[in-house]
Specification:
It is built from eight helices and five strands; from the N terminus they run βαβααβααβααβα. The protein is an alpha/beta fold and 234 residues long. It has one domain: Rossmann fold. The chain is globular, with a radius of gyration of 18 Å. The N and C termini lie close together (6 Å).
């Protein structure tokens, strides 16, 4: 019996705004292209036509009156659409999917930051996302104060340059982000086999090397498992 086509690989990036996710995703995308590995990049919220409209509402500072549960529901509406339209088809086609934020972000920001707790987030993920889990999650946790300062500077520059305002979360108090940070650490401790935490004051190159090392190790195990399965099924 021939082996079934290999499912793709689902890689998510997590961390506070200003943690360097965007830079590292760009670096990894270039590395994957150099290795001739099929991949796509998406983000949450956003990434689909519907998701981009949800993102505009969620991140605009004029949406300050959103209740925490409304915010939570919108996050999952975006995610369910992204899974159906982008993530699931790409994985079925054997691609590597790089996603900037996934349900860990919702558990950290809405569960931790908004103090809704983890249970409601995980239950919604089970019900609306078919409990889809990343194969690997890179959690970037550089210095909290420095990350927030970088994110706030970036958003100020974006508003001045383009008029686009996505600063709603960055306007929260530091205590909000301290709860987010603590929840991220809690999630990482709960799922050490999935989540690779990269902390401390590291250069862009140092972080990139750690990410490539973690991904290469997981892809190597995946390929070994596929080869073994193929030989056993021949």
């Amino acid at each position: 019996m021939a082996a079934e086509p290999q499912r793709g690989f689902f890689l998510t990036f997590e961390g506070l705004d200003g943690s360097g996710k965007t830079t590292q995703i760009k670096r990894l995308t270039s590395w994957l292209a150099a290795q001739d590995l099929p991949h796509i990049v998406t983000r949450q919220p956003g990434g689909t036509a519907t998701g981009d409209r949800i993102r505009a509402l969620l991140l605009d500072s004029k949406s300050a009156a959103l209740s925490p549960r409304t915010e939570l529901a919108m996050m999952f509406a975006d995610r369910a659409q992204s899974i159906q339209e982008i993530i699931a088809p790409a994985l079925a086609a054997g691609q590597i999917v790089l996603c900037d934020r996934f349900t860990d972000s919702t558990e950290a920001y809405q569960g931790g930051g908004r103090e809704l707790g983890s249970q409601i987030v995980l239950e919604l993920h089970r019900l609306l996302c078919n409990n889809l889990q990343p194969d690997l999650t890179i959690l970037l946790l550089p210095n909290l104060k420095a990350s927030l300062a970088r994110a706030r500077r970036r958003n100020t520059h974006e508003i001045e340059a383009t008029g686009k305002d996505e600063s709603r979360f960055e306007r929260e108090r530091d205590s909000f982000f301290q709860r987010v940070h603590a929840k991220y650490l809690e999630i990482a401790a709960r799922e050490p086999s999935r989540i690779v935490v990269i902390e401390g004051k590291l250069s862009i190159d140092q972080v990139h090397r750690q990410i490539v090392g973690a991904l290469s190790a997981r892809l190597g195990l995946l390929q070994q498992g596929q080869s073994q399965f193929s030989s056993e099924s021949a």
